[in-house]
Amino acid sequence: MSNRLFSLMERHQKLDQAIRLAEQRKGRNSFEIMRLKKLKLVVKDRMARLLRRPVPAISN
Predict the structure, then answer these.
(1) Whether the Cβ atoms of residue 8 and residue 46 lie closer than 8 Å to each other
(2) Residue 25, CB half-sphere, CA atoms under 13 Å: how many?
(3) Distances (CA, A) of 26 to 21, 23, 30
(4) What is the pLDDT along the chain (60 residues), one digit of tens a residue?
(5) Which of 5, 14, 36, 40 is deepest in the core (most CB within 10 A)?
(6) H-only helix segments in 1-60
(7) What is the dihedral sign for C-alpha 5, 44, 35, 25?
(8) Are residues 25 and 53 in contact, defined by beta-carbon separation less than 8 angstroms?
(9) pTM for this one?
């Protein structure tokens, strides 16, 4: 797994956790939750794009 993909996966998990925490707060901010969800989707799209890239062949 590439470092870039690993970083994106970590970011995706942190955003997921932030969304859960924001949804549990009493004075929850709907706009903040929406912003976090959109950002999480952007990260997910970037991960999917990385996974669709062809892996370069290793020549000996």
Answers:
(1) yes
(2) 11
(3) 10, 8, 11
(4) 689 999 999 999 999 999 999 999 988 899 999 999 999 999 999 999 999 887 776 766
(5) 36
(6) 3-24, 30-52
(7) negative
(8) no
(9) 0.81
